[in-house]
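User: For my dataset I need records formatted as: sequence, then structure tokens, nothing else. Please produce one.
Assistant:
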Amino acid sequence: MSKNIKQNLGFFTLFLCILITLFFLGSIIYFISVRGFRVISWEFLTQGPRMGMTQGGIAPVIVGTLYLTLGAIIFALPLGLACAIYLCEYSPKGLAVNVIRISINNLAGVPSVVFGLFGLAIFVNFFGFGVSILSGSLTLGILILPLIISSTQEALLAVPVSIREASLSLGATRWETIKNIVLPTALPGILTGVILSIGRVAGETAPILFTAAAFYTRGYPKSVFSEVMALPYHIYALMTEGTHPAKQTAIAYGCSLVLLLMVLLISAAAIFIRQRQRGASGQ
């Protein structure tokens, strides 16, 4: 077999894999959209659920999901960024650092339900935060912490060493070099990790099942110590509980579409910021 034939066969295989991936992705979006648009309305987006969650809307559920997502990112991003900077820029090379990096990568593969049990034991019971937004946000933050650390490390390591050396040779300190040169250059890669983290946080059910989610609450949460309704758990509750399965299934599809659109909009905003940063840094 000639080299051209092998090359064309390889390109065809890659193109076929892309088509298969896009087919399943498009099928999921189409399936959810067709069933979800039937129940989407202004009332559905601005009112609370009533009549056993068979009528009304999901406004408190949307707000609860945003609170949990925002809280998790606020907790995990600074901590993950600081950890990655230390591991890449300050830590001495050796066995201990390699063990820490391997442990972080292994932590990313732990099932989410284990994080939920950890949050229940530590934040809900030990610290006494109770089933609340604070407990759920901290648990979700720990869940995405390995992803943020790993993506930030890759982004920092991708910055050429020559840029650091040039900055240091001009009299800048190591921290000034990191703050003014390395971090702005690595920001697009860091935002990629944040985008992936947002998608995972918004769609997780198991961690908030033990730490934050309520089957039903009246109105909106009043503080970080309040229970909260969230879209993933609300979908689960609609599909497993109740006496009006047809109505609840339709609402569940509407919730799924709202969750999908919410993740896409937040991710699109982060991607826009990333692209602007790439343009500003000339990457």
